[in-house]
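Students often ask why we bother encoding 3D structure as a string. The short answer is that it lets us treat folding as translation between two languages. Here is a chain of 250 residues written in the first language.
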Amino acid sequence: MAIIQFPLRLVAARMIAPAVRHMVFERADGQPFAFIPGQFIQVHFSYADGQATKRSYSIGTVAADAASPIVQIEIAVSYVDGGAATELLGGLAVGGTVDASGPYGRFCLLPGDSNARYVLVATGTGITPYRAMLPLMRRLIAERGCRFELIQGARNEAELLYGDEFAAFAEATPGFGFHPCFSREPRAVPRAGDYSGRVQVAIEALKPDPATDVFYLCGNPDMVDQSFALLKDAGFAVSQIRREKYISSR
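And here it is in the second language, the structure alphabet:
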């Protein structure tokens, strides 16, 4: 089946970390776009020699109603030294366009779940799909009485992507906990819920329980693999551990 591409026009952008750019697009063809929180788009372009390539980016748009089309498609782009996608998206000015396709993926909250708690773990831009899930989390907490714990790993506070948004959501939403983990340098002014170390420190502190929990792991492949092994050793079935790895490409 042929992939149907569509043009995206950049309408806003800002740096949210020293090497991460938050980008806001609209479809330049005026057509609607709908997605399920957790899905991604692919940006299509060519290398300097003309060879076609593509990169995947999770959609981070916080939509009021996941079933309705959205106006803006938000993504977070990590800069990779010498990366072709970095050259394309890092230098894209407001008004510039790129070709995209999607949405794709199944890294989503599933309607058939009946677990009491979700633990969502991310490093780097792997946090992006969880940002899009926030309204759905609020609804599931209200409808099912389940709880969400978000563990976000970063080297330091400057790289804690969307951290203030998650902290504000936690303060406003009983049933949602936010647990930043700083592997290199703690905050200058520590906050309640902060951990020093990698995300596995927070995972163990939350006492994973196969009888009640479903885990989501997203981001650096080493983090995903190590966390998966930890949970398997704790008695979790593969179906209780949902994974998506982010691999940097040049």
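Translate back mentally: The radius of gyration is 18 Å. Keep this in mind for the problem set.
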